[in-house]
Each structure stands twice: as structure tokens, then as C-alpha cells.
Protein 1
Amino acid sequence: MKIDRRSFLSLVAGGAAGTALSPLPWKLTDDISIWSQNWSWTPVPEDGEAEYVSSVCTLCPGGCGITARRIKDRVVKIEGLKGCPVNDGGICILGLSGTQLLYGPTRIPSPMKRTGNRGDGQWEKISWDEAVSTVVEKLASLRSGGQPQKAGCILGSEQGTLPSLFDRFMTAYGSPNVMSPASSRTSYEMAMQLMQGGKPTAGYDFEHSDFILSFGSGIIDGWGSPVRMFQSNSDWKTRKVKVVQIEPRLSNTAAKSDKWIPVNPGTECVLALGMAYVIIKEGIYNQKFIDNFAYGFFDWTDEKGENHHKGFKELVLGNYSPDQVSKITGVSQSTIAHLARSFAFASKPVAICGRGQGHTPVSLHEAMAVHALNALVGNINQKGGIWAVPAPDYIRWPEVKLDEAARKGLTASRIDGAGSDKYPLVKSLLNRLPGAIASGSQSLELLFVSGVNPLYEMRDTHAVKSAFEKIPFVVSFSSYMDETAANADLILPSHVYLERYEDVPSPVGFNRPFIGLTKPVIEPLYDTRHVGDVILLMAKALGGSVAEAFPWDSYEVCLRETLGDKWDALVENGFWIDEGYVPESLDKAFETKSTKFEFFVSRLSETLRKDEQALPHYMAIESEGDVESYPLVLIPYDTTRLSNGYIGNPPFMTKTLDDTILKGNDGFIEINPKTAKTLGWVEGAFATVTTPKGEARVKVHLFEGLMPGIIAMPTGLGHTAYDSYLAGKGFNVNELIGPVEDPASGLDAAWGIRAKLAKA
Ligand code: SF4
């Protein structure tokens, strides 16, 4: 049987979905481990008995359980962990490729100090003692100079013990500047917390839904917990669940859904409100939910009888008729009406939102509009709907005792403005950091970067690099020579996920309280350290109240103590789950001021003047650039075959790319054939794509699954660092797109950017 690349991939996806009806997917995963051994840098394992270690994959926020097969001291294969509630034996192509990230040539083998200019690639290996004392000296000097707030850190995640430990270190030291990238999860959970109160995570009971309405989420393109989504998608096919995908491009998700609805990028919010119009106008909303558990749906007059307030119903009926919405979204009136009715009449519908894999936020009001749809059908905390899931509450350390230096440093305003009067809703606004540094209004003297690659991942990478150049001392904790590490002053390399402990709570979209535990499968291959241990070393070296905040001898001791009685189960099974969890009944579910689900958000009304601002409404997030100079709109797209975050694509994954994504070192830009014809473009031509942020040489691919006037580029290409398997292949689309601030939250909510194509 001849297997071409496409059939090969769908079989791997079948494996990921856990549909092991044929032995072939598993044969192919074996092939992967055999194939992996053919890379020159991969050591061939000795013969011996295989052992199996259960752990958790941290290559994306999916939180899948894995089983690593080990022969002596070598990991030879990674499989999905059977029985793990997140992925039940399934694994994705990135998870399968984990051994390449363990043994690949891009690992940093020991602490390194820059010797040439930044980014020149000239490094000197140094000892851990020298590395830690270099950092501590700089930290101590900033602190004694009364400027601890000039130290900052960027962390890949806010969840779990390690980010909390870093946050604790910065607090005890005296800096408020702890930042991390936001995602569509950030926006949706912010909307949920505003409308429902408390601090729940968003859990989707997909296993029982009968209608999935996706506003751009790449359900099988890596959104949420990717393997769980593959498995859900297979289950939906069996149960004949209806899936509707709304987005400007025919993604893999759109192609596999029951209906694809192309929509002008960035207008998803107004489409949700147009659907709400039909549902309200026709009275097909969930009357019981609205009458008993909702606040701010109908107009009302306050207790004193003085002020009349506009409710969601009046706002929607006055502003979002299908006629008005159709003009903005490009979706026909009849489609809006049909979609609204289908959603309302389904018995367990659920609406989700997020761009592709969800690495960038959506606007707060888009998330609120989509959440309002879930409320209109009353499918909150119900079977098949969206659940407010409490995050596992296990990090309960004593409060940090601050000394005078820390107290003073913590009174300084944050460099990114998060939590200020202008941006009260967010904890972190990493997207604002480059602008704050460029404006000269604030500065950092020292920056830690851990678990994230801002010089590749952040929008407008040139501006990010310029901002980093103004920070005198950048310390990277990366395991890999990524773009940020390559431009740092000092690298303190961490163990990779197969060499360390790490707790992984609340996978994206999972519907029960869950913690996974990553475990060391083998001893560290190189002279690396756990970031947690380096934090403890730095704290102890700084002494005083900073050292006192860290009573643990090692990170492992801290983690064991923090996880308490869950530790044994985590070590044995690889995960802990609250099996008996059921969501709160609606009479107890809402921790808002009104104790109800708030269409009219009390917390927003306290700070904003107009009623409309406290209700879900459309605020256009315009793409940057003027229409005359830039007649097209460039959007990024995600695929599961390209890792686009902190983890760079392993060689195996790059091998599987279609030659309409990458051919040789040339990356492609997609364009609708009609638009291409009008502009004189043919398949395979070289073009220069230019946006207000930069330009790139690309090859043209005509793709009918793209709305006219839109061009699209994949995320995950165009690395300048890592290794020869990845660097110099294609172009990093983040260099071409700049952030556009959501006025309601301050988060970057840009869908794309205006662009033009010219002959290369
Ligand atoms: S989906 Fe994410 S967590 Fe799961 S195996 Fe793939 S990379 Fe790992």
C-alpha cells in the first residue's frame, strides 16, 4: 500500500483521535520512532527491556497524559496515556515528536554568557555558580539602588507552581512587573468572570453537546486541548452532532464541519449579536433561564425610580438586525436567521470562540457576545453546555513578608499598565510592553524570560526586538536556542519536560478540575537546572526577606508540599481529577453583585458611563493600514503540523508539511483565485507581501477556501534561530502583523492587517 503524505497525516490524526480500529496508525507511530533514529544526532538505543513512565506533555497547553517508553537511559517512544481523561490514549503529531526535542541539536547544554554583540551567536560556557552570582549581583544592585521594579519577567504561563514561584520571587524582591502572553482563553474567561462572577475556568461539556457553534476556533487545528478536540470531533461524527464553523478561511476544521460560514475577519462579535437579535425577536430564547437567573436582559429602572437602564434585549433589537449585521459581516440575512434558529432549537447547543488555536485574544465584547448566546439558550452549567469550573486550589503558601525595598518597589506602576485605572480588568498586558519601552515612559534594567519566546511569538517582532535592545540585561531560561535565547545576555538552560517535574492544572476548555504531573522520565542529559531550583538559589543568595519567602530546600520539595495529599496519586497515575465534579446549580452558580448571570455587567457599569458599555456590544477592531495603500487583508492561520509557540517545529513535523505551505525554504501565501485573477497572480509566482509592519518574499498559492480580498499565511515558520532543520524556512507572519488594542481590555485583539502584493 502506497501512503502519500496526506494519507499518512490523516492516519496520524486517526491515532490522535484514539480510533485505533486498524493497527496501521500504531505501526506509523513505531515508524516515527524508527525514523527519528535516522537523524545524525539521535543516539541509537541499546537493546534492553522497555519500561513505561506515565507523565504529562507540556508541548502545548493541552495537558495530555503521555506514556514514555524507555530502554535503559533512553526515551525511544512517546504515546498517549490510556485512561487519562483529557486524551485517553490519543496523542498529536507534536507530542509524538517529543523525543526530537529531547535529543535535538537545538538544546542548550550548559549556562552560557554572551561574549560578542547580541544575536551574534558568540557564547562562553560558564558554571552555574558564576551564572547565578552574575544575576544575583545585578538584582542586588538594582534593589539597593531603590529600583527593584526595574526587574521584570515574562513567563509562558500563569498556571501552576512554577509561575506562582516566580511571581512570589518578584513580589518578595519588589517588582510588580510579571507578564505573560494572553490568549483567547484569557478573553473568554474574563468575559465569563465578569458575567458570572468568581474566578472560574471555562469548561466545555462537548461530550454531551448536540450543536457546536464555533466562532473561528480551530477545533481540529489545535484549539483548546487539541487531542481531546480530535476525539470530540470523532465522537460528534458518530453522534451526528452538528458543527458550524464561522471564519474567513476554509481551515481543516471548516472543511470537516457540517457548515462553513465565511465571515469578514474581526466581525464575529456582530454576527453573534445578529443571531441574538433573531433569537430574541422570535422569542425562542430559554425563558426559564432569562426569567430566573439573568440580570440586565430587560430594561429596568433603579431602586430610587430615577434612572432608566437599557437591557440587552433593547440594545440588540435596536442595533443588530440581520440587515445591519449582514452588511458588516458579509453573511446573508437568511443565513443569520437560519443559524440563530438552529442554535436555539438544538437541545444542547454550545458556542465557542477563538482565532485558530487561540494564541491571540479576541476582544472582550466578542467573548461577551458569544457567552451571551450561551446564556440565551440557557446552556450554562448544563449537560452539553459551558461550565464554570473552579481551578484546583492547591497553591496555599503563607503570605510574603515584605521588607521596605520590596514595599516601595511594589508601589510603582506596572510597565504594561495592567491593573491601572485605564486597564482595570487584566493582570498582564505583554502586548503593551514594546510600546511602553519605545515611548521612553518606563524602562526595565533586567528581564527574565521563561517558557516563552517573545522575539518570535509576539506580534510586530521588529518592535519587540527593538524594545529588548533597550533592556541592558536579558536572562533566558530556555532549553532551546530560540530567538529570545539567541538575543539574550545570559542563558540559564532549564530541563526539558521529559527531565523535570511540573504540575499542569486546568487544561484549556476541560470540564472538570484536573491537575497533570510531568515527571522526569530520564536524568537530565545536559548541565541544565529546573527553573524552580534557580529561583530558590537566587532568593537564598539575595538573603533577608527574599530568602525567608522560600523555605524549601529544592523545587521538588516545594512541589510535593504544595500538592500535599494529591502528590501520591499524581506520581502513580500522572494526573489527579475531581471525578465526582458536577457544576453548581444555577441558583448558586453566579457570584455577581446581582447573584445572577449578568448581561448587564455590574462591575463594568461601576466604571463606565453609558449602559451600552456594560452590555455585550460591537466595537470594531480595525485592521491596521489604510485601504488605498493596502487593498488586501492578511490573516494568519494555524495548523497542527506547525508548532507556533515557545516550542519550535521538530524536524519530523516539518517533514510532513504540504508543498503549498513550504517548498524548500519558500513559504506560501494563499489568495482566492478570483482575487488573484483580478490582480494578475498565478500559482507559484514569487511575490512581495507588504504591510504597515514589514515585507516578505513569498510564493503565491491559489486557494478557493479563502474569502476574496483576503490573503493568508501560516504561523510557525520563519525562525531565525533553533537549528538548520527549522531556521530560514518560510517567513514569520508575526513580523508582518502588529497588535491592535482592544479598548475594553487593553489586550491585543488584531485578527490581521491590511496588506498588498507586488512582484518580487
Ligand atoms: S495536544 Fe498538546 S499536550 Fe497533547 S500531545 Fe499534543 S502537544 Fe502534547
Protein 2
Amino acid sequence: MSTSLQTVTDIVAAPGAGQAALLQALLAVQDASPENYVSEEAVNEIAHLLGISRSRVYSTASFYSVISLKPRGRHIVRICINAPCENAGKQAVLAALEQELGVGLGGTTPDGRFTLEGVSCLGACYMSPAIKIDKQLYGDLTAEAAVAVIRRYREEENIGHTA
Ligand code: FES
């Protein structure tokens, strides 16, 4: 059994787990996936373990934008595209990210490191324009600062690969 499916088994086996465990299971499986998504195999296993239909698992996964049914990069770069961030300079930040990563919104870099996504709000309106990489928020960004953040991730990964 894969690590992610063991995670699902653990969630379902937890005291009080039931149908409400579905979203939790989807998020846990996605977190455990190196490609940041919920595979068809995982959907089947979740449906089996929770005793619900595959279509219900799919519809729940499709409803929540935070869950992906397609492989993505190791790091998810989310940029807020709502008005407060728009007014604070989001367009320049987005253009810089697209140029630095070489992909548009919804795209994944060829090396599989980053997926760039637009979201309606990151809950960080007080520091617009904002982005979130995985679980880390970055706010009050300029185009240059956003590019520096991406380069820092690359450098840290490169160091990790050579260590
Ligand atoms: S509007 Fe951009 S973080 Fe809320």
C-alpha cells in the first residue's frame, strides 16, 4: 500500500470518521503526492474505504479548487487575482512570475517544480498583492520581490539535491 493510501486508511479508521472524512482524505492524499494531486487510483481507494461512490469522490474533489485531479508541480504558486490585490499591483507581479517561470496561469514548469495558479483571495488582503507558495504567504510584493522568492525556492532545492 502506498504512503498516501495508508494515510487514507488511517483517516478513515480514526475515531468519529465517516462521510465527513472525505475532504480530509482528499487533502491528505494530495499532500502526500509528490505531484500535488489526487490520482484515479486514490479516488478509487477513497471511495472503497469510505463506502461511497467514485462519482461522489470526484464531484467533491472537483468542487474544491484547492484539490487537483491532475498532476501539478512540487510547489504550488498561488496568486490572488481579486480586486484589492489587482489594485495593489498584482498585474506586475503576475507578469514577473509568468516570465520567471515560463508558464501562464494553470501551467506547470517543464522541470515539474512549480505550478502557477490564480485564486480569488488568499485571506491576506492586508498585504496585497499577495502570493502563497505551498503553505507560505508572501505579501506587499513587487515584481522583483516575487521573482526573488521563486529564485530562493530554486536555490534551496538545488542545495538540497547536491547535499
Ligand atoms: S484580495 Fe488578495 S489576498 Fe484577499
